[in-house]
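SEQUENCE WITH STRUCTURE:
===
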Amino acid sequence: MARMLPWYQRLRPGALYPVGLIPAAWTFHLGLVDRLGPDPIKVLERDLGLWALKFLVLGLAITPLRRLTGVSLLRYRRAIGLLAFIYACLHLTTYLLLDQGLAWTAIWADIVKRPYITVGMAAFLILVPLAVTSNTARVRRLGGPLGQRVHRLVYLAAAAAAIQYVMVAKTWAAEPLIYVGLVAVLLGFRLLVHLREPGAGPTRRRPVRAAG
């Protein structure tokens, strides 16, 4: 008899997409009924970017959660990463289309002039190769070690997104600092594991046994 999955693994990964997009649908709904305040575009832009950061943090938390508690959510990691990318796309589209009206000269001036937009664009560009190589066929084509190196770029993307959140807030508010702290702790955990177990991970080579 096949072993029954734990309750937290019974949800199909594909079911995460409609659930994960509920916040976006709700935020757009609030915008349509004029309930996002005096500057709805900025609120929409901010909330979509924040959800992208939330899913990045959630994706980073999967490995520490498994190592510390034994709770494995690895089967959901791809869906969580793609949700982060979807929210980043919605965030960027809101900025380009609704905020700037596709005025490319003004957009380029904004990127150069405002550091937080520069950092945000960098975070998005880092996420693009992660999303493009997220399907199984492309992962196999890249190969194990190369694919892992590419997907470690998510660390840079999460750090950049958290830093951008602080820069946008322009104050030392608690919420942006909490996200910076979460990203720092999750990345620090990975660094600590790497230093303590330098051979850990799926790419570790097995020792060659002596003949005879």
